[in-house]
Amino acid sequence: MLSAIKDLLGIKEENKAKIGNEIIENVEVWSARYSKWKFNENLTNYPFVENRYAPFTPARRALPMLNLALISSAGAYIDGTQPFDTTSTEGDVSFREIPREVDAKDLAYSARGYNPEAVIQDRNAQIPIDRLLEYEKNAVIGSLNEVWWSFCGFIPNAKRVAEELAPRLTERLHRYNVQAALLIPASRLCHQSVAIVARKIEQSGIPTMVIAVDKEIIEKVRPPRAGYYEGEYGSVAGKPNWKQYQLRVLDESLRWIEPFDQPGIRKLVVDLETKTEEERGEK
Length: 283
What we know:
single chain; eight-stranded mixed β-sheet; alpha/beta
């Protein structure tokens, strides 16, 4: 009898692990819901993906020893090159590989679902290249990867994110020998797209961290690791032209990559520290 119970529990654990490794659980059910949705830019009645479990890969290196990848869904591309398609009802599942040496003034944005004012004013509000290079210089991280990845995260067809965008992006990270990935969404729907990509990357053996300002979507889609705070779309990595604010967001998020021993979501204390700083007139 005891043996039979153990076997049953073993099957349940095996099934749980299998479900946890699915990028979108019950994807055919989701696809049926999506097929009935009437497209609208405001996402009214949109059937967001809902997962119960998440894949998980423990961090095998300390921050000062790892090569960190940065992935942004703000739709950045090098000015003068092909922009992302912001007219497709399915969404654009292509991505751009951008050398970290490219200056902020040389970037343009296919913004969809968010106001690009903050990132145009200061790219670090969404794409914290300068902050991460400071971390590299100060040995907070081993290195920022030589290229970073950009896509336009307003992709209603989540199945295409899971089956096309996420695998291709993941393959590129492995080619660059990335040891951890930081993913930053820009809009509400970006939170879903980024979470799906993070699940695929984690499934492949690379630990991830998602910075989020939309707890509801993150709890539905369930990326392996996420740090959230009461921020704004379009400046998820911190308010523009406010270096200390951006560093607080990054510092808390990155330092949680190692301690996580299972999938989870944690609240950043950015808000409290920022209010204190404002009250002191330190901004």
